[in-house]
């Protein structure tokens, strides 16, 4: 009886607005369901660091400006360390009038610290490059295309590189993060730089701890062991509280990163700055 | 907030429909009661009316909402440049559906009271 009344529109004096009520209720349920799916996806993103480019538990930086060499024996033989990779972040690149920054990663033991590519694959040779999806869109390029790239601070001749994929980058500088930036192999950076320019040693090491090792405790233990070898900084990745902090230059550590960069002495600067120094010399 | 607001408006629409239904079908309800319908059966009829509307809204609205949520997340992820991994929390959606039906049933209480307040003879006389 009730079901019949619900679906019966009636006529004249007994007419009831069934159709508009059903439409309104459907729109309300749909909006609520959409909001639930969106919120759950956002929560999943914030709970999965690999999705926003963070694939490491600690980043170790040598405060003495002598590269990663002095820290490597300790890092390599640390029982808590599952994988490591030396890296240089913020290497400036230019193609046409578009400038962006790159992360240069070595991948020993086959462990990649760049998240799985969104499309395509990661670069493996010196003439290959992976871009962020936004950078790719900005260049109006596509995977498989060849673009001419140079290092603007060295004023080098541009060289051809093939785009082999798109990936997500950790937010490591104002312009490197998520869909903005590029990934190169160390050989790729050497290929772009003039033969006379000596590529500086990688400045830092990404470390991933073994399963079961609590990251904060692992960082503390690693910092204690490294203290015997010199002056090193062991930082954890910054995790955003919301989507607004995911964009490059807006993360919780962005302010600290700016201060650290500003306060660092000349011989402690990132490799990109070293390249600039070499060019000026 | 927008979703909850729209859902609340949708519940109010159902409430409005039930109130309108009780007022315009006063004669029908009076005849039913004259034929032997009890007050609880009238209340039950309105409850089923509300549950039917809410059920139709769920059957159409939940799949449409999941599709809209997926699409909007994919657009958002595409703009950010991240991998678009969509999470569909079926347990939360089930709780939402149960809550929605319960709210619809509760909303039918007041129109049910209004439908049984007047004696059928008075209602039929006024009609």
Summary keywords:
heterodimer; A: 281 residues; ten-stranded mixed sheet; 10 strands; 31% helix; B: 127 residues; mainly alpha; 6 helices; elongated
Structure description:
The complex is a heterodimer of chains A (281) and B (127). Chain A has 281 residues and is of the alpha+beta class. Chain A has helices at 2-7, 18-47, 72-76, 133-138, 186-192, 215-226, 254-263, 271-280, and strands at residues 58-62, 81-95, 98-105, 119-120, 128-131, 146-149, 159-166, 182-184, 204-209, 232-235. In chain A, strands 1, 2, 3, 4, 5, 6, 7, 8, 9 and 10 form a ten-stranded mixed sheet that branches. Chain A starts with a helix and ends with a helix. With 127 residues, chain B is mainly alpha-helical. Chain B has helices spanning 2-24, 26-35, 39-80, 90-107, 109-117, 120-126. In chain B, helix 2 (26-35) packs across helix 6, helix 3 (39-80) runs antiparallel to helix 4 and helix 3 (39-80) runs antiparallel to helix 5. The model of chain B has no long low-confidence stretch (mean pLDDT 84). Chains A and B meet through helix 1 and helix 2 of A and helix 1, helix 3 and helix 4 of B.
H-E order of chain A: HHEHEEEEHEEEHEHEHH
Shape of chain A: elongated
Protein chain pair with the most extensive contact, residues per chain: A-B, 54 and 60 residues
- What class would the helix/strand composition of chain A place it in? alpha+beta
Overall geometric form of chain B: elongated
Cα Rg of chain B: 20 Å
The helix tally of chain B amounts to: 6
SSE succession of chain B: HHHHHH
| Structure class of chain B | mainly alpha
Q: Kindly report the oligomeric state of this protein.
A: heterodimer
In round numbers, the mean pLDDT of chain A is 77
């Amino acid at each position: 009886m009730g079901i019949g009344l619900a679906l019966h529109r009636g006529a004249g004096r007994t007419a009831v607005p069934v159709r508009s009520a059903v439409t309104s209720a459907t729109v309300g349920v749909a909006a609520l369901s959409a909001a639930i799916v969106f919120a759950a996806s956002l929560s999943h993103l914030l709970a999965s660091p690999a999705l926003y480019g963070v694939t490491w538990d600690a980043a170790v930086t040598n405060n003495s400006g002598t590269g990663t060499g002095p820290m490597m024996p300790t890092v390599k033989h640390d029982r808590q360390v599952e994988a490591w990779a030396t890296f240089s972040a913020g290497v400036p690149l230019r193609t046409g009038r578009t400038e962006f920054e790159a992360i240069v990663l070595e991948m020993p033991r086959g462990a990649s610290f760049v998240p799985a590519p969104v499309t395509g694959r990661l670069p493996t040779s010196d003439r290959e490059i992976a871009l962020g999806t936004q950078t790719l869109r900005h260049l109006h390029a596509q995977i498989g295309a060849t673009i001419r790239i140079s290092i603007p601070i060295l004023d080098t001749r541009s060289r051809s590189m093939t785009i082999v994929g798109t990936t997500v980058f950790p937010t490591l500088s104002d312009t490197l993060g998520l869909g903005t930036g590029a990934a190169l192999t160390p050989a790729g950076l050497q290929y772009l730089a003039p033969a006379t320019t000596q590529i500086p040693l990688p400045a830092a090491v990404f470390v991933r701890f073994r399963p079961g090792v609590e990251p904060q405790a692992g960082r503390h233990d690693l910092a204690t062991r490294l203290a015997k070898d010199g002056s090193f900084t062991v930082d954890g990745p910054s995790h955003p509280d919301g989507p607004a902090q995911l964009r490059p230059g807006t993360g919780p550590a962005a302010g600290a990163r700016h201060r650290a960069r500003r306060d660092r002495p000349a011989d402690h600067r990132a490799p990109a700055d070293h390249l600039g120094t070499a060019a000026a010399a | 907030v927008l979703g909850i607001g729209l859902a609340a408006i949708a519940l109010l629409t159902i409430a409005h429909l039930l109130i309108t239904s009780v007022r315009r079908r006063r004669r029908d309800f009076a005849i039913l009661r004259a034929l032997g319908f009890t007050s609880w059966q009238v209340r039950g009829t309105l409850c089923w009316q509300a549950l039917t509307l809410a059920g139709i809204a769920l059957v159409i609205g939940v799949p449409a909402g999941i599709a809209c949520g997926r699409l909007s997340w994919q657009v958002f992820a595409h703009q950010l440049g991240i991998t678009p991994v969509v999470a569909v929390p079926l347990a939360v959606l089930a709780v939402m559906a149960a809550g929605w039906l319960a709210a619809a049933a509760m909303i039918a209480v007041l129109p049910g009271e209004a439908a049984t307040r007047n004696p059928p003879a008075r209602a039929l006389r006024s009609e």
